[in-house]
Amino acid sequence: MLGIELPKSASAHRADDEIRLAVLQRYQLPDAPVGDDFTLLTELAAQLCDVPCAFISVLGADRVWIKSATGMQAEQFPRDQFYCPLAIQAGDSLEIPDLSADPRTATLPLTVQAPGMRMYSGVTLRTADGFALGTLGVLDTRPRALADAQRHMLHRLGRQVMALFEARASARVLHGVQQELQHLSISDALTGLHNRRALLERLTLEVARTKRYRTQLSLVLADMDFFKRINDRHGQAGGDRVLAGIGQMLRDSVRASDIAGRYGGEQFCVILPETGLPGACKFAEIIRLKVAALQSGDMAWAGPLPLTCSLGVAVIDHSTGDAEALLRQADEALHRAKHMGRNRVEC
């Protein structure tokens, strides 16, 4: 039995277009800047086809975006007022030798207004998985047909345009992967804060900056009190939940210039650039109160077990100390807080 291909319904066309638009976002073409490489391709298309105008277009939901053009200035057109959608509907290519004689194009603005376009030839820019993104097209002010060799070259240039689209999309994906890897290399997976290695690297840099610009630098070390009890009662998953909550609280509490990290286990560290001892002690007290407040908020599930932390604060200025000394001073202050009853700040 022979298969008969039925015409698609309007709803099917809309569904196809929604998928195509989603693919278009993958390439970020409407917002992506153009470059000399695309301009070169439109210039070549105009020269090889012996026409005054050539362009690379991207078909959006209701507009056609001109990403690169030779011989025309427009950046966009309403979707129903340009030739590009007709080429995409036609398949891989479309050529209209006389735009004024074709009922689909006779009343379009570029046909009836100066300079009065008469010939259009376009090839569809299609992804490897078959979705049309736009066209590479040429326009002439005189009715005519392209020679076979010119059509062949236009198709080849179209493949080059698509290759550039793919290369740019791949470069963006690679950049995103690199950023993610960089984030993973410096972040603690559980809390989202800087990990210990990244924290110590930033501390060394901040100490050097403090000395160079003759400012102050403070450090706050925080250690959860009796954290083993939470793990014993609620298991490691419960303990991890508490630590993740502390990490979120710290991210919400620090300034853009501050650096918060997980120092190790249930210990946290916050580097406070350009901050003296009074400001650092005030910040540490706020953190102490916020930790206790978690017990009645996000961590209420922990039940009657108290959720508190002890904090030690240290400061250096441009004339004394280094990263190791600052950490040692903060650790000594933290031990005093533990020794004096916990749930307190020692400066």
Set down the secondary structure blueprint.
Elements: H1 10-27, H2 36-49, E1 53-59, E2 63-70, E3 76-78, H3 84-90, E4 93-96, H4 109-112, E5 119-126, E6 132-140, H5 148-186, H6 196-213, E7 216-224, H7 227-253, E8 259-264, E9 267-273, H8 277-294, E10 309-317, H9 323-339, E11 345-346
Parallel strand pairs: 10-11
Antiparallel strand pairs: 1-2, 1-6, 2-3, 4-5, 5-6, 7-9, 7-10, 8-9
Provide a brief overview of the structure.
This protein has 347 residues and is α+β, with helices and mostly antiparallel strands.
Measured by DSSP, the beta-strand proportion falls in: 15-25%
> Whole-number radius of gyration?
32 Å
Count of distinct strands: 11
Q: What is the total domain count?
A: 2
**Spatial strand arrangement across the major sheet:** 3-2-1-6-5-4
> Structural class, judged by helices and strands?
alpha+beta
* Largest beta-sheet characterization: 6 strands, antiparallel
- Quick check: average pLDDT? 87
Highest-level CATH class of the largest domain: Alpha Beta
| CATH architectural grouping of the largest domain | 2-Layer Sandwich
The low-pLDDT segments are 1-7
**H/E element order:** HHEEEHEHEEHHEHEEHEHE
The name CATH uses for the topology of the largest domain is Beta-Lactamase
Name the CATH homologous superfamily of the largest domain.
Answer: GAF domain
Distance between the termini: 88 Å
- Helix count, DSSP H or I runs of 4 or more residues: 9
Spatial shape: elongated
